[in-house]
Amino acid sequence: MESRENPVDPFDLVVFGGTGDLAQRKILPAMFKRFCAGQMPGESRLIGAARRELSSESYRVLVGEALAAHLPARPDGDTLAAFLARIDYVQIDGRGDTGWQDLAALLCPDRIRAFYFSVGPSLFGDLAQRIRAEGLADDQSRIVVEKPFGHDLDTAQRLNADLDRQFMECQIYRIDHYLGKETVQNLMAVRFGNMLFEPLWNSQYIDHIQITVAETVGVAGRGDYYQNAGAMRDMMQNHMMQLLCLIAMEPPAKFDPDAVRDEKLKVIRALDPVEPHHIIRGQYTAAEGVPSFREDVDNPRSKTESFIALRCHLSNWRWAGTPFYLRTGKRLKTRSSQITVVFKDAPHSIFGRESGRHNNELTIQLQPDEGITLDVTIKEPGAGGMKLIDVPLDMSFAEALGPEADGPDAYERLIMDVIRGNQTLFMRNDEVEAAWAWTDPIIKGWELRGDVPKPYDSFTNGPDDSSQLLRRDGREWRGIKR
Ligand code: NAD
Fold first, then answer.
1. CA pair distance 426, 173, nearest whole angstrom
2. How far apart are the CA of 125 and the centre of ligand 1, in A?
3. Verdict on whether the full-model pTM lies above 0.90
4. Residues forming a β-bridge with 213
5. Residue-wise DSSP of 14-46
6. Domain assignment of residue 439, given as a range
7. 372/459 same-domain check
8. Both 130 and 190 in a single domain?
9. Structurally, how many domains does the chain consist of?
10. How far is residue 364's CA from residue 186's CA, in Å, rounded to a whole number?
11. Top-confidence residue, 432 or 379
12. Pocket mutation for ligand 1, best pick of 117, 118, 234 (most atoms within 8 Å of C-beta)
């Protein structure tokens, strides 16, 4: 069978923070899967770099354990040994002087160099500066930076400035793993590859759009970070904003990194400030043997939100008057990320009032079970006259594509895009800053007012006020369909 893999050139991938949680859970398993897919060509290498004192041999043991813990199936011995043979480790303190020569000795001049900063953002500037000062990077090298990218506009601008001093924008890959999801890219394929949707994709035909990212997990283990971030900074400013951009943007002239990112930027800039009464913040309480948010962050008076729902508007021709409802939270009833596009009712029902109100809905399910569903109205079967019901046209990728649907996960795809030099699915500096420029006044607003998040029971849909946000507009949050 012809390979469906897009070839990549040989590379050296240096993972700063190579012993950390993200590296172990996501980056190393992703690289192993790409290795198995033949995408570590030639003498490509992965070099872990972190503060811990380890030999390369001990690091390989750590990698083997991480793979055993985080891959769905235990890797076979020969493949694992071949992968581990491609791995090295250097002990480096990003702010110290040792280890840099060892790293230089491991890098090969003929290979693409990518430096993955899987460390806290306070190290980004130091690492970028040091990599340059040590002569480890040229103009073809790339750096990958993790979220959080800033705490507000000011810190994001300073981070951008620190990176811009050392690297050109075309070398900087700000990762948002939501953009690496198959369905998120399918959103663009569905919108711009089909004639069906785009003519209707505007305020004339769409009643409103909802985006929900619901998690069942709490913040235990990440309490310190989360207490200072909250749902607005942790999810809304980046992941939810990116989903909003893809659903609302104009068609780019071509599928090219800057063309796509230009259109996303215009969406963020078109966002109106959000009215305070269109924002609902919540905080989970203890339930079913799990601690409350305040216990998880070890702060009995915490005013940080673990849930946020808001209604926002875009001031542009396409979307004038169409509300976008966004909600995200932890310790909710189910783990589910979905976007629902709710079309308007038909302008006139020829079937009379008794047939009820019916409209089309397009649901894009990002997790779990990625897929797209279109609800269409049909006649209810039977001899009871012309009664209408809505049924889903289901495009479950797993069913439609079989094993082909089981493609690379987000980190695999995004890391390979870094190696290929394709920035389409990465956030540009101006996008990140525009998102913070919209987010900052919202946060400042509730800080000035001293707003306290509403408590909500764990494993529910969040605070009741979030339902009210839609109900007072005559709408409802869509349930989880699968
Ligand atoms: P972690 O605390 O588990 O690991 C941090 C890593 O950085 C360790 O390998 C440590 O040795 C290294 N490190 C710390 N200080 C260093 C220094 N001065 N010099 C060199 N190395 C140093 O953190 P993590 O959970 O792996 O997160 C790493 C980054 O990724 C953070 O910015 C985090 O916000 C982000 N992130 C993590 C996740 C996740 O699921 N863990 C998800 C998204 C983003």
1. 6
2. 15
3. yes
4. 328, 337
5. EEETTTSHHIIIIIHHHHHHHHHTT-S-TT-EE
6. 179-471
7. yes
8. no
9. 2
10. 9
11. 432
12. 118
Question: pLDDT-based confidence at 347, cuts 50/70/90?
Answer: confident
Ligand 1 site: residues with CB under 6 angstroms?
16-23, 50-52, 92-95, 118-121, 123, 146-148
Q: Are residues 248 and 122 part of one domain?
A: no
Cα–Cα distance between 309 and 471 in angstroms, integer?
Answer: 13
94-139 tens-digit pLDDT: 999 999 999 999 999 989 999 999 999 999 999 999 999 999 999 9
CA of 424 to the centre of ligand 1 (A): 25
**Probe residue for ligand 1, chosen from 14, 15, 22, 26 as the CB with the greatest number of ligand atoms within 8 Å:** 22
Per-residue pLDDT band at 481 (split at 50, 70, 90): very low
Does 24 lie in the same domain as 125? Answer: yes
Confirm whether 313 is a catalytic residue. Answer: no
pLDDT for 444: 97
pLDDT surpasses 50 at 445:
yes
Amino acid making up residue 67:
L
CA distances from 184 to 207, 239, 353 (A): 22, 11, 38
How many whole angstroms from 121 Cα to the centroid of ligand 1? 9
